[in-house]
Each structure stands twice: as structure tokens, then as C-alpha cells.
What does this fold into?
Amino acid sequence: MEFKIDKALPNGLGRIGTIKTAHGEIKTPAFTAVGTGGEVRFISMEELHALGAQAMLSNCYHLRNKAAEIAEAGGLAKYSGWNGPTVTDSGGFQVMSLGDGWGKKVAMTRELGVKINRDEGDKCHAVVTEEGVEFTDPESKEKDFIGPEESMRIQCQIGADIHMAFDELTSFDKDHDQSAESLARTERWAERSLAEHKKHCDDLGYHQNLYGVLQGGRWEDLRRSTAKKLGAMDFDGYGLGGALEKENLGEILRWCTEELPFEKPRHLLGLSHPDDIFIGVEMGADTFDCVAPTREARHGKIYTRDGNINLRKFTGSTEPLDHDCDCATCRAGWTRGDLRALWRSGDVEKKVQYWNLASIHNVRFSVRLMEEIRQSILDDRFEEFKKEFLTRYYGE
RNA sequence: GCUGGAAUCGUCUAGUGGCAAUGACAAGAGACUGUAAAUCUCUCGCCUUCGGGCUUCGUAGGUUCGAGUCCUACUUCCAGCA
It folds into this structure.
């Protein structure tokens, strides 16, 4: 994989660039739309291309039983109909979401996640050992063992352009020693991932890349040492992952990116709120992915340049979703009142239409933010743009 | 006209003589960041110094220590018979 840095920020960490994959280019920074199961919920591939998305991220765990079928079809890009650059996560997120994080919402602060009060009977669906993780599918209850080798073999069958090494994401309540222990395991898994990946990375007739994933929680010594260690290994790029505390996000990322080789691309895993994006870009992240734009759209939150709105409050409103948006939904003239009515309708077809229209809008918001950040860097006005955007978005 | 049944928070609904009284929907507030997420949490009679106080189950009486619940009358609605 080729990564060209087009221009760097004066701070020596942030940059814009171009990633070349077997399925096309990604101009960075870029928001990778999340299509966990091989499709972005309620957005067609045509719509996804039209809104300017450059890549799609899917998940090894969710596609594990379809991997052979996907390989048969020629890989994820063809199988999904996306026909563009793709990324897969290793299943590392599910180590947390199905394990320690079971029964809670993912939290970005150290306070315990909000309990979600569902399926309280079964405590843990991911048991970690040195070899790997025994997952229990929450739906089917089927058990799967996935370790670094399994994840690499599955990802190489799925055949995304960029894969993630198999890692262990931990929750926020881990102390330094627990984090260090988990991190050491993730590092051993990184070596195993790299070795196994090399055996299969050209199996589908094009080259597939592997990113090493940096964990280490909120501890500087752990973050720096793992960045040095994995940074010296033969990865094609790096995933910035783990329990990223919102209030210390910039510092945590700095510890990582100061130690990583500058010329390799970095993917900031799982973040998309504008404040996080600006910090990410500033600290040298190149690509991003996040479920928030689509999930929050489904839950009635609409992104606007003047802050997010909750559609519940706009019964009968004739106001546009966002006064300054070029997405297909806004261009077609849908109003807040229209969408509110569709969203709260008892009719499933109307709800599906709402999910489609709102998801397109929010994903376009995230994609466009990236485009504008890139342009602001080209124009030497990143700081000004950041201040303008965040002031307007979050208010004074 | 007669007989039987029914009236409970916006709507539908649970309710054994014993705590403003069930559940669902609607409504309101919040959450959501590598998708267990078409989800979750909270509020939903009035007031509150959060201890509690006050007023409520069609209307008016009654029995009872105590009534949404039992009794009487009335009102309205439904069903059956004339």
C-alpha cells in the first residue's frame, strides 16, 4: 500500500495525504462509513458514493460465517457492491462489547457506562485467554474461538484493503497493571497477527494491508512503549484504539503518534464527533470510522453546523435539517417536521425511509467535515477553520 | 320502556375493601463514538424545604377504621329484549 503525505501541519504531527489501495484512493483525512455486516445500515452503495464516502469499514466478527462466500465473490469490495476501498476490524472491539462491556453502553469517560438493562442473565460473551477469545454469539449462542490467526485468516478471506491486527479492547475501569497485562497480550497477538497475515495477504489476487493496533488505556508509559514496539514492526499502518478518554484524547493520541513512524498511515478507531475529529487530525490520525452518525440518526439526532438537534422537538417544523448542508436529503427539501413525522410514524416503511434520509444526512455531515478539514490544511487555515467550526457547532 | 354490561392519568388498559392506582402507546428530557443499538435511561395528577403534603378512578350520596373496588340514585355509553 502506498501512502503519500500531501502536506503536514506546523505541529509536526497532523497531515493530509493519499492512501492508494487495490480498490482506489483515499484522500485523507477521511471518514470511513461503518458497514459492520457488509452494508451501511439504510444507505445504498450508490447513495454512499454520492455522499462522498471514500471507504467502508466492516467487521471480521460479524462476517466470520460469510468469509468463504465473500472470498468466492472476489472480496468485500465486490461482494458488497461497494467497489471501493474497504477496511475490516479484527473483532477486537467485540472483546470489550461482548465481554467486560456487556450490559453497558460504551462510555467515553471513566464513569461506568450506563447499564442498558438487556439480557442480564448472561454475564459475559467473550472470554480472553493467551490463545485468543472464546466468543458466544448473543443471538444464536453459537461459540466461536477467534485468536490472531483466526482473525487474520477470516480477514484475508473477506479481503478488505486494510485489516486490523487482533487486539483486546478493555473497558475504562482497568487500572495500570491490568492495562499493562492486557497490552502485553495485545502486543504478542500483534506479532502473531503479522506472521499469519503475511501467509494469506495476497490470496485473493490483490494486496491486503495490515495495521497494528495500539492499546494502553490512559497511561503514557504504556502508550509510548507500545507505539515504539509496534512502530518498529512491519505493519502497513496503525490503528489508534482502546479506551480513549474524551478529556485526554489529544494527549493520549500524541503519546502514540510521537512514537510512530511518521510516514505510515493511522486509523483512529471509532470516533466521529467533531471535537474528536479535529483533535484526531491535529494529532496525526488519517482515517476515522464511527457508528455514531448512523446510529444517532436512527435515534432522532440530526447533525447541523449549529449543533445537533433532537427531532422530537420539531413537530410540524418547516425548517430545513441544516441551513447549510449539501446532502441528498437536504437538497430534496426534506424539513425537520417531515422527518420527525416519518421517524415517529407507526408505519415501518416510513420509518425505513426516515432512517435512510437521516443516515445519509449525518454521514454526509461527517464526510464533509473531513473534506473541509483537508481543504483548510491545503489553504493553511486549519486553526481558523477549527475555531470557526467548533464555536458554531458547540456554541460559546 | 325493560333487562344486562360498562365508565380509571391524552388514548387504550390492569386493578384483590388497605400506600396516586398496572401495562402499553402517545408525549417530554437525556444518552449513544472499531454496531448485542429499529436501542437504552429518566419523567409523565398537583405541590414540595425530597421528609412529605394535597386532590384523584362518570356525578351525588351511603356502608366502613378504610371505597376505584360494596350499596343507592342519577348521567352517559354499549348489548339484548320490546
Observations:
- The longest strand of chain A covers residues 2-8.
- Chain A is about 40% helix and 15% strand.
